[in-house]
């Protein structure tokens, strides 16, 4: 079955705190849609925790094609970023970044201890988040002469398509969207409209 939903965060998680042998691990989870947003969030947390030792993170973007990155930020290889990413996978969320900020407490935790601490801090941040399910939508842009308005609107009503924007002049432009699973039927109905130009794109 073609899946057309994905899970993401409704809002930032707020701050969580996990302690181990005097080290403090502050966890944060944020909804994001671009790497630029990830960078902005990291810059903000580095300013907020300017005396911390490490700002480790993982993010995942996309709904159908997933893109992720994990960063250990100076911790031993794969001891921070990948355990954080493992929790993103475990919660089944995307369009999300999880950041764990570590203050070193003077006692080394060892690689196993670090993996457990970063995994726990990431888990706490995601548990503190509201996770919601969204649909993968297909967006159509319709361009047509004003005289075709009625028949276009009839198809939009019949197919229960959501109107995102409309420009009504001599030449009209209507942007609509529907769930991916309904997109083929909607496209077929729209393509049947004479003298109406249709273009589409995926909207995760």
Question: What does the model show?
Answer:
The chain is α+β, with helices and mostly antiparallel strands. It is built from five helices and eleven strands. The chain has two domains: 5-133, Ribosomal Protein S5, domain 2, CATH 3.30.230; 136-203, Alpha-Beta Plaits. The strands form three sheets. The protein has a five-stranded antiparallel beta sheet with strand order 2-3-6-4-5, with helices on both faces. Strands 9-10-8-11 form a four-stranded antiparallel beta sheet. The protein has a two-stranded antiparallel sheet with strand order 1-7.
Give Rg in angstroms: 23 Å
Percentage of residues assigned to helices? 25-40%
Q: CATH homologous superfamily name of the largest domain? A: Impact, N-terminal domain
Count of alpha/pi helices: 5
What attributes does this structure have?
alpha+beta; 204 residues; five-stranded antiparallel sheet; 11 strands; 5 helices; elongated; Ribosomal Protein S5, domain 2
Condensed summary:
Helix content is 32%, strand content 38%. It has 204 residues and is an alpha+beta fold. Strand 2 and strand 3 (23-31) form a beta hairpin.
């Amino acid at each position: 079955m073609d899946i057309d939903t994905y899970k993401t965060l409704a809002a930032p998680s707020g701050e969580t705190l996990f302690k181990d042998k005097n080290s403090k691990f502050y966890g944060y989870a944020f909804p994001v849609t671009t790497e630029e947003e990830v960078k902005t969030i990291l810059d903000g947390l580095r300013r907020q925790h300017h005396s911390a030792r490490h700002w480790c993170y993982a993010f995942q973007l996309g709904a159908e094609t997933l893109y992720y990155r994990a960063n250990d930020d100076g911790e031993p290889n794969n001891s921070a970023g990948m355990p954080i990413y493992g929790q993103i996978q475990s919660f089944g969320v995307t369009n999300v970044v999880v950041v764990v900020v570590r203050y070193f407490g003077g006692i080394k935790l060892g690689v196993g201890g670090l993996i457990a601490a970063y995994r726990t801090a990431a888990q706490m941040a995601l548990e503190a988040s509201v996770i919601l399910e969204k649909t993968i939508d297909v967006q159509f842009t319709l361009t047509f002469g004003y005289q075709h308005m009625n028949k276009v609107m009839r198809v939009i009503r019949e197919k229960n398509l959501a109107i995102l924007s409309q420009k009504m002049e001599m030449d009209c432009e209507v942007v609509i969207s529907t769930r991916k699973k309904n997109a083929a039927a909607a496209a077929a109905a729209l393509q049947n409209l004479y003298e109406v130009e249709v273009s589409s794109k995926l909207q995760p």
